[in-house]
Amino acid sequence: MFQISAFQVVLLSSALFSWAAGQEFAMTGGECHEGHSGPDCPRQWFLTGGPGWTGQRTDWPVEVICSPSCTDASSPKECSLILAMHGIYSNPRDQKWLMMGTASDPNAETFIEDDEHGGPYCISFHKSKNDAWEYACGGDDEAHLEGFIHFALDNFPISPDAVNLHGFSSGGIQIHHMMNTGCSIESLISAASSYGSGMTEAPPTTKAAYLIAQGTHDDWVSYDLKKEAPDGITIPSCECTNSGCGGTSHFEATWLSLQGPRLAGAIARLRGYAEDIWGSTPNPSEYLDLINDNPSRCAARKNACISPLANPNPFNADYDCDDIAFSGSLETEVIEYPIPADSDAGAVTLMKMNLHNHDYPDVRRSSYGPTEFFFQLKKFFHENRGRQSYPGTRSISQVGTGSICENPTWYAISIDKNRLWHMTSSIECMNRCRDDYRCADAFYLDLTPWNGDYVCVIYYDTAPCVSTTPASWFNPVHWKGTTEIVPTLPPTPPPTPAPVPVPAPTPAPVPAPTSTEICPATEELTPSASAGYACLVNGASVEDSNFGGTSASCAGKGGDWAEYDCATAEAHLAYFDAETAGY
Prior knowledge:
By secondary structure, the protein is an alpha+beta fold. It has helices spanning 92-100, 140-155, 170-178, 260-269, 295-304, 372-383, 426-435, 551-556, 566-580; strands at residues 14-20, 23-32, 43-49, 62-66, 79-85, 121-126, 158-168, 191-195, 209-215, 225-227, 234-236, 284-288, 332-336, 348-353, 393-401, 403-407, 417-421, 439-446, 454-460, 467-470, 477-484, 530-537, 540-544, 560-565. It is 17% helix and 26% strand.
C-alpha cells in the first residue's frame, strides 16, 4: 500500500512487494533525508528481504535515497538509478560516506537535478553476502542486485534506460563478472563503473557504457599488468604488499588479469577499437582534480610502489611528484576510447589518476560533503542513458566429447577467452555459451583429479577454437555457439482496398443547337414585320439595334440608320449559315 501525504505525494513509505514467488521485499521509511525538510525534500527508504537475502547482507538493510523529483511513484519514469557496491571488508555505510559525505552539504549540491549535476536520481547502497563479493555471474549477490532492480523499476519513477552500477574495489570486480551478455542482470544495465578494480581474465562482453577509474600507484589492485609474451609471464605496475592480498603476487604469473588501461582497452576492442591494447592509450580528452594531495603524500605513495624484480621499480620512472600535473592539481586524465559509430555500443572511458593509490577519490565540493568523483559518475551515467544489445538469436550445439582445444590452448594467456570456474555441470557451461553473444566455443573440463576445479572455457568469436586434441582425462565436453541474424524486412504495406465505384458526374445540360430560323417551329414568319435597324456606311452594316446599336451612335459614324424587315433578316442568317458550314 502507498501512504499519501498532505501534500499529495506518493511516498512509498511502508510497503511489501514480491519480485519472485516466496521472495518478498519489505520497505519502510519515506521521510525526508536527514538534514532536509519540506514537501519537495529528497527522501530515503530502507529495504530488507528479496532474492539473495542471506549472509552478512541481512545485517545491512538497503538504503535508498532519491532526489526530489524521484520520490513520487506516480511521476514520469525519468530518474536514473545507481546501485553502489562497497569494497572488501567494508559496508554500505562506508560507501555512502565515500561518495556522498555527510547529510550536511553547505553548498546544497547533492540533490540538484540539472544536467550538469547528473539529473534526477535514486541511489541505493548494498552489502555483499560475505566480506568480499562473490565474483560470479549467478549466486546470491547477483540475485540480490537483479531482484532489487526489478523492484525499483516497479515502485520508483526509474527509467529502464537509466539503471547503473558502481563498485569500489571488490564491488567493481563483481561488476566485471556480471557484465557479460550471458548474465541475466546485464540486459538491465545502461552503464557500469568501477574504481580500483580489475582482476578479470577477459573483458566483459556487454555493450553498456563502461567507466574504469583507478590510481596508477594502486598497491592493492595493480593499475597495469603487462604480459611479456603470449604464453609468458605478467608484470604488474606495483606489487601488492597489503594484508588483503593474502600473500599473492602477480609478478611472473603465467595467467592474465586485466587491469586499468588493459581492461578498458579490451572492452573497447570488443566494440571495434582497432589499436593495440598493450600499447599506449589514447590521448586524454580532459583533466580533473579528484585527489587531495601534496608532495609528501605523493612521494610516500610512489615509494610504496615496489617491484620484486628491480629496485627502484622501473614503472616509477614515468612519474614525478614535482610535476604539478601529478601533485593534486588536475592529476586525473580522462581517456576516451574511440568506438566505431556502427558498433551500436556504449562509450568506454578510463580515468587515470596519476600517482594515486587504492584510496577512494577524496576531493569534496564542500567540507564533508559529496565528492567530485560522485558528480563525475552521475554525469557519466546521465550522458550514457539507453541500453544496447546484440542482434540475432543464439543457439548451441554439442560438437563432441573427449577433446580439448589445441589452438589456442585453454590455459594460454589471452583476452579472447574467459575461464569460468566452479561450474557445477557441462549443462551450466552450455547455457553460459548459449547466452553470451561473443561465445564461439565452450569446453567444460574436470580438473579435480589434480586438486583443481570444474571450469568452463569460453572462446570469444574474436579468436575461436581452431583445432582440438584428444584429452579424455579431463572428461571434456565441447559446445559451439552461433548467432542467427534474421534480416530486417521492409514493413509490409497495408493491403490496397478494392476500388469503390464512384457515380459518374451528372453532365451539365447541353444547350440546344442554335437555329438559323428567326421564329420557333411552332410560329410562322411575317416577312413584312420590322426586325430591327442597321447602321449602313457605304452600304455595309456596322451596327445593329439588336446588338446595342443606336441611331445616335450611327450618326456619329456618318451612317444611315435603316430599318429592315423579317424577310431581310432571315435571308441574311441563311447566307451566314452557309458560309460558316464550309470551315
